[in-house]
Amino acid sequence: MYLFSFFIFPILVLYYLSIAIKNTEQLNYIKERMLVPIFSFVLAIIVCGIDAFFVFESSYFGENILLYSLRYWFSLIIVPSLFYFFYILFSKDSWVDRVNTYFIFIVPFYAVYMPFKIMSYNSDSFFIAFIKPILCVSCVYIIFFEIKNIYECVINKSYKVVLFGILLLVESLFPFFIEAMWFYSYNFFIWFVLSIIYVLYVATKTRRFSPEYWLNELKRVFKTK
Asked: Helices 102-119 and 132-155 meet at what angle, rounded to 10?
């Protein structure tokens, strides 16, 4: 049941590399920063080890749906984001490169961290085994998208930085609101449909669902002109 959570982020890495191979500039960019994903992967192993042996998290059994959402949002989103934050603080790259390395830093981290957290649920439910990993991947995409928007607003001194900050908060928290609905035994139809809506929303907003995008992907896969 947990195999999907183990493979979803490595598959994402392979997909990203398959695109980079076709782009010399992007491939060179990754080669120059190979230490970033390696460091992130090793860091995740250390964090999970510390979490397993020295941190004792008790399950939340309260009835407040917002508190449940915030608790697991902090664990699965804020904790990895803090490590990325410390990385960009101490990195000597340009700020553009620090922002752009979010993806190659966070995905290897989640490749270890997310399966570890999912196994801690001790649940073989359909939501935990399949829906939660998909929501997590979607969340990573939308966070990366909004971080770039926030950076551009800061550079251009735009007031929209506040708007994108609020969007980042809401969009990253929403998957855990869906999870809370599952946890509190809301109707299957409600949280399942909301999960689909969220994934489609992220795919559309990040241009992963446009006809042009998939047409280009098909051309790339089948090498058509």
From this structure: 150
Q: What is the sign, positive or negative, of the torsion defined by CA atoms of 90, 93, 94, 99?
A: negative
Query: To 10 degrees, what angle do helices 160-183 and 65-73 make?
Result: 110
Q: What is the DSSP letter of 59?
A: P
pLDDT tens digits for range 158-199: 888 899 999 999 999 999 999 999 999 899 999 999 999 999
Which long-range CB contacts under 8 A does 4-9 form with residues at least 24 apart? 4/129, 4/130, 4/133, 5/114, 5/115, 5/118, 5/129, 5/132, 5/133, 6/115, 8/114, 8/133, 8/134, 8/137, 9/107, 9/108, 9/110, 9/111, 9/114, 9/137
Using a cut of 0.85, tell me whether the model's pTM lies above it. Answer: no
Kindly report, residue by residue over 71-126, the tens digit of the pLDDT. 999 989 999 999 999 988 888 888 888 888 888 899 889 989 988 888 887 777 88
CA distance linking residue 143 with residue 174, whole number of Å:
12
The 10 Å Cβ neighbour count of residue 13 is 17
* Three-state DSSP string of 163-223: HHHHHHHHHHHHHHHHHHHHHCCCCHHHHHHHHHHHHHHHHHHCCCCCHHHHHHHHHHHHC
